[in-house]
Write a structure and sequence with these properties.
Helix content is 49%, strand content 11%. With 233 residues, it is an alpha/beta fold. The protein has two domains: 139 residues, HAD superfamily/HAD-like (Rossmann fold, 3-Layer(aba) Sandwich), CATH 3.40.50; 82 residues, Four Helix Bundle (Hemerythrin (Met), subunit A), CATH 1.20.120. The longest helix is centred in the N-terminal third of the chain and has 19 residues. The radius of gyration is 19 Å and the shape is elongated.
Length: 233
């Protein structure tokens, strides 16, 4: 298998995303309690989460755009309290700053440094992580996100955009991610090779079709495989 470039998922591949999302909810709630107590009382965290789920269900056209979904959620929360305008920029900064205070898996950064020293890597995500805020943007050739491209994984088009930006044919790109459907099935159907980062060592879910080319416990194992298998390719 010849690999000339990689695309790399972010959330739950480089870091666990749930702790950051929960922290972001708590910090936004604390901000509301200080600056907009009526909104905070009407919309505690569980209710705000339900409102966001309602927005997502109603606005399927925004399935690729988590940022706008959250902006609309904030607007609706304020409107329900009789407030015509929500301070979206201030609210979003509180949420977004906390959402990007992630804790990388111990293997992630050393492996990323090894890999990007030899192969161009594009980040490829449905989420809204900010690589500059996290401090790892310098390791990536480019950043491809669902909000920007208008479609998210597993749609083949987002993988095609990444291949175009890398300047590499899809068959020579290895997509790396944790999600069997969004990452493995999506990339496979777009013509990329696939690596499943399977930290919990789960059996492959056959409902998602053929298994990945690589089933690996972490990114260190990916770096080991790349360095070992690509010599002389």
């Amino acid at each position: 298998m010849r690999i000339l470039a990689l695309t790399l998922d972010l959330d739950d591949t480089l870091w666990p995303v749930l702790p950051a999302l929960e922290s972001a909810d708590r910090e936004l709630d604390a901000y509301l309690r200080t600056h907009h107590p009526d909104v905070a009382t009407r919309w505690p965290i569980p209710a705000m989460r339900q409102l966001r789920a309602q927005v997502a269900a109603e606005r399927l056209d925004l399935a690729h755009d988590f940022t706008t979904q959250r902006h609309l959620t904030m607007q609706r929360a304020f409107a329900a309290c009789g407030l015509a305008e929500a301070p979206i920029e201030a609210l979003w900064e509180v949420y977004f700053a906390a959402r990007n205070r992630v804790q990388l898996y111990a293997d992630a950064l050393p492996a990323l440094e090894r890999i990007t020293a030899r192969w161009p890597v594009a980040s490829l995500t449905n989420g809204n992580a900010d690589l500059e805020r996290i401090g790892i943007h310098m390791h990536f050739h480019c950043h491809v996100c669902a909000r920007e491209t208008g479609v998210g994984k597993p749609d083949a088009r987002i993988f095609e955009v990444a291949a175009q930006r890398l300047g590499v044919a899809p068959g020579d790109i290895l997509h790396v991610g944790d999600d069997a459907d969004l990452d493995v099935r999506g990339a496979r159907e777009a013509g990329l090779r696939t690596a499943w980062i399977n930290r919990e060592r789960r059996p492959w879910p056959v409902r998602h079709g053929a298994p990945p080319d690589l089933d690996l416990p972490d990114l260190a194992a990916l770096a080991d495989w790349l360095e070992g298998s690509q010599v002389g390719v």
